[in-house]
From TrEMBL:
Protein name in the entry: Hydroxymethylglutaryl-CoA lyase
Source taxon at top rank: Bacteria
Record domain Pyruvate carboxyltransferase: where: 5-272
Keywords: Lyase, Metal-binding
One GO molecular-function entry: metal ion binding
Species assigned in the record: Shimia haliotis
Gene3D superfamilies according to UniProt: Aldolase class I
Pfam family, one: HMGL-like
One of the protein's GO biological processes: L-leucine catabolic process
């Protein structure tokens, strides 16, 4: 039996959040329903953030209400504060994610808080989630480079990752938000994080701006990471990280993992179909 490596599908959230055209809710639901048949265990479909900050995600509640939920798939949503938490719970998200940064510049630009303030803001979310046994994932952004502050010290990533892990996040997703990481900087960052969070509680979330995401995934595999975030069609980017391109494309990650002898449990034909669907959503309708 080949070893299982999980791809956490990000397309409906990280993939679409930066699209300029307001994508009709029905199209988003169609994409999620297609992805639900591909064999993913987790799909990030929604984001309960301020619609003034990210207008594209304003219909997140309607997306969660409209999808046909597949057995065994966890449908995830981002929650920056208690208001977002309440929205995600009302929409019956199966899990939520809090998102922090290892760099002050991005933290301020993305969630209008210092790193310390953001960690304080997450406390009531963690408490509320725990009281209803809702799993919480934690993101750390800018794990190698920040569009505002330059290179990120690995120790800072480890500090924020440990904080989120100790606070109760079941997994820490390490974001190369602007896709400037290299196998060397990713390795140095992971070595620091692995001192404080075990490999089986980590995920790699690599954007593909410089075309190095697959190489960064291989570097991470070598250090024991077995979960990777990716978006079908390679869509996406963060509105608060200028120049950031999309997550690495799911179909490319899947092909490389299979080539390396890993089992991803994904149906290639459905992935291809979903990638076409996602790419067509980028075109002005
Ligand atoms: P703020 O302006 O400091 O907060 O924003 P505020 O409390 O003053 O609220 C401002 C307005 O938003 C108010 O409305 C609130 O009611 C409303 P007004 O009174 O002006 O009409 N509001 C909300 N509305 C709906 N849902 C909410 C909510 N909260 C406040 N939850 C805030 C602070 C965190 C809200 C804002 O900065 C925000 O929404 N930021 C999110 C930015 C974002 O979504 N970025 C992309 C996702 S992160 C990412 O892509 C990186 C990742 O992929 C990993 C990686 O790649 O590294 C995860
Ligand atoms: Mg991202």
């Amino acid at each position: 039996m080949s070893e299982y490596v999980e791809i956490f599908e990000m397309g409906p959230r990280d993939g679409l959040q930066n699209e300029k055209r307001q994508i009709p809710t029905a199209e988003k639901i169609g994409l999620v329903d297609c992805l639900s048949q591909a064999g993913f265990k987790r799909i990030e479909v929604a984001s309960f953030v301020s619609p003034k900050w990210v207008p594209q995600m304003a219909d997140s509640g309607d997306v969660l209400a409209g999808i046909t939920r597949a057995n065994g798939v966890s449908y995830a949503a981002l929650t920056p504060n208690m208001r977002g938490f309440d929205g995600a719970v009302a929409a019956k998200a199966d899990e939520i994610a809090i998102f922090g940064s290892a760099s002050e510049g991005f933290s301020k630009a993305n969630i209008n808080a210092t790193i310390a303030e953001s960690l304080e803001r997450f406390v009531p979310i963690m408490e509320a989630a725990k009281s209803i046994s809702l799993p919480v994932r934690g993101y750390v952004s800018c794990v190698t480079d920040c569009p505002y502050d330059g290179p990120t010290p690995p120790e800072k990533v480890a500090e924020v990752a440990k904080h989120l892990f100790d606070a109760g996040c079941y997994e820490i997703s390490l974001g190369d938000t602007i896709g400037q990481g290299t196998p060397e900087t990713i390795t140095a960052m992971l070595r620091a994080v692995l001192d404080v969070v075990p490999a089986d509680k980590l995920a790699g979330h690599y954007h593909d701006t410089a075309g190095r995401a697959l190489a960064n995934i291989e570097a991470s595999l070598a250090l024991g990471v077995r979960v990777f975030d990716a978006a079908v069609g390679g869509l996406g980017g963060c509105p608060y990280a200028p120049g950031a391109k999309g997550n690495v494309a799911t179909e490319a990650v899947n092909a490389r993992l299979v080539e390396l002898g890993y089992d991803t449990g994904l149906n290639t034909e459905i992935l291809t179909q979903a990638a076409e669907m996602a790419r067509s959503m980028r075109v002005e309708g």
